[in-house]
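Objective 1.3, modelling of assemblies. Example input:
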Amino acid sequence: MTTKDLTVGACREPFVDKPLTITDFVRYQGASGDMNPIHHDSSFASKAGYPTPFAVGMLQAGVLATFATDWLGADNVRSFKVQFREQAWPGDVLTYSGTIATVREQDGERLIDVELSCNRQGGGTHLKGWATFVAPN
Amino acid sequence: MTRLAQTWDRIDDVGSHVDHSLEGRTAKPFTMVVEAGKIREFARATKSQNPAYDGGPQGQPISPATFLMSAQFWQSAENSPLAGVELNWERILHGEQEFVFHGTPPRAGDVLRGQARIDKVFEKAGKRGGTMIFTEQVTDFRDQSGRLVAELRSTMIETSKATTEG
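Predicted structure (tokens):
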């Protein structure tokens, strides 16, 4: 990656994930410690009025964050924010994408603001995200 | 459309007369040891193959941007500023989550001191009537010298009975 690639409007090739599975949720829940059964226990979800367990929002938020850090550097991230919108469900095919929105100087550092999104098949927005990175050397 | 998407679509930036008594409520601090194995597990769960999260032979991987979220699931009730507060969790949605780093994110081996507080409580009117109460909880993470290294901001949204759920 060269500095020429880091201009406003530059984007990373979107990541189209495999269909979401409850195993994905369980793996994230084990990693994070969030064992809420609504995300993996079908009878619990059903009693709560949901057709099936639904996705852990912070899992997709985490994928959106690593999508951005795999692009602009794990060391360089200075902020990441996500807004939860439509719920995601097992079987959903999610597309993660990001675009450089701003390049600016602050306190002698070059900062890159990125706009991110995670969309469901059909176009519904699961997550909107924003991240700031210091420019990679 | 799901309930949360409707919630965002209903928001108008008006009105603010809400009980602010929770603001400033601060919980007991907790210790978080950033562990290499947990970082690798978390990075794989969030579908990253980035070698920065494996650490290489030096074995000091950096933590992913959302990793500190996992701190909250290993705490006691007294580490939450909402301990003892009666809330209707059935009407509360996790609306936003933000992570701010004052420098490179924490690395494996770092020992952090976390402390959570209620920062802001405010109300917004819905476009279709009713109100939503926004509660923003901030968790500060400091290193052993006391330097602020990261802040997590969680926004919870409580919808009022008056709103029409579709």
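Helices of chain A lie at 22-32, 42-47, 57-72.
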